[in-house]
Amino acid sequence: MTIFELIAVLTTLAACFAWANYRFIRLPMTIGLMILALVGSLALVLAGRLGFAPIEDLTGFVANINFDGAVLNGMLGALLFAGALHVDLDRLLAHRGVILALATFSVLLTTAIVATGGYYLFAAIGLTVPFAWMLAFGALIAPTDPIAVGAILRKVGVPKELETTITGESLFNDGVGVVLFILLIELLAGEAITPAVVGKLIAIEVVGGLLYGLLIGWIAFRMLRAVDNYQVEILLTLAIVTGGYAFAHVLHVSGPLAMVVAGLMTGSAGRTFAMSETTRHRLDEFWELVDEFLNAVLFVLIGLEVVILDIAPGVPLAAALAIPLVLAARYLSVLVPVAMFPSGRALPKGAATILTWSGLRGGISVALALSLPPSLYRDKLIAITYVIVCFSIIVQGLTVGPVTARLLAEK
């Protein structure tokens, strides 16, 4: 199947599922799309096993999709840029302490708790996974993706400072999570992980990514200010996302962090000083559509991935144990930053619980799991990750509105 045919199939599925969701179900779009794709895939698998329908074509189609490549090297940069484009930079800087702690300390603590707790829980049910592999699992499950709940939180009247904290954390913890995952994959490969190696990776990936994002953001700002044509200016932002992200890989710096910084610069300085009112309006509409389209395709992909899962004995129970473990790790990891910083203490009562329940796991966790190196444990961890992501999107995504509204009403 050619790339065009693949895009055509996924776009058609996303459009049909979006129509069905809007017409009949009326769930938040990304959640509805994933549920429809998941239910449809499971129905085909069941029909195939009962002999009513061949599923080889569907299995082959999904198996041929390079999910981790599509997400990590394609969609992620555009999604992060689009998300950063609409963030209030002044408000973000006002809460920089708690956001930075959530994006770094919380990712590290979540990784450690999930790895340690999972190591002993899985061993207790006879599913032995080496601790190094559990560390990689903890790193891939740590980043959050609140894309599906952003509109829900705004609808229930979440205070702006809490909304900014949730959005800011999710923008930066993806990049931090990817860097940590890369480091742990090197550990799995048998490379010596010394403080010098860690320092070098952080300097190149994290600091390099931030500086590179500032550079391409500044270049784009100067180019945007030199023209007044919304078509050209939108093309320039596309160049940032595509060319800028691709060149980040050449430089071996963090593309996700670079896109966040470039998006923040374009959405603040670029929007204020380099764009006309017409360009601002057109740019917002364009990137809102890109964001919705990519999320639609991404969540359909997540739903389809179920047909290629290899569910080994012990995996369902391990996944059931991992869900509360991940939630507990998330809650503990946000308590410290919220209590430590003045901007965190200024958040409404119940902020830690809201941050926990709105911290959905999404496409990046599945993509990182699929990029694990071949081993006896890879398929088990992929299946466990998938169950956690599905629970997160469906259960947490559908209940985060009522949970948040109730907690805010108690203040």
Q: Overview of this structure, please?
A:
The structure is a single chain. The chain is mainly α. It has a single domain (68-409), classed as Na+/H+ antiporter like fold, CATH 1.20.1530. The protein contains 18 helices and no strands. It has helices at residues 3-25, 29-49, 56-63, 67-85, 89-94, 96-124, 131-141, 150-155, 160-188, 195-225, 230-251, 255-273, 277-304, 315-340, 342-345, 351-357, 363-370, 378-409. The chain is globular, with a radius of gyration of 21 Å. The termini are far apart. The model has no long low-confidence stretch (mean pLDDT 89).
Query: What would you call the shape?
Result: globular
Average of pLDDT: 89
Straight-line N-to-C gap: 55 Å
Largest sheet: none
- Which architecture would the CATH scheme give at its second level? Up-down Bundle
- Tally of helical runs: 18
Radius of gyration: 21 Å
DSSP strand (E) fraction?
under 5%
| CATH fold name | Na+/H+ antiporter like fold
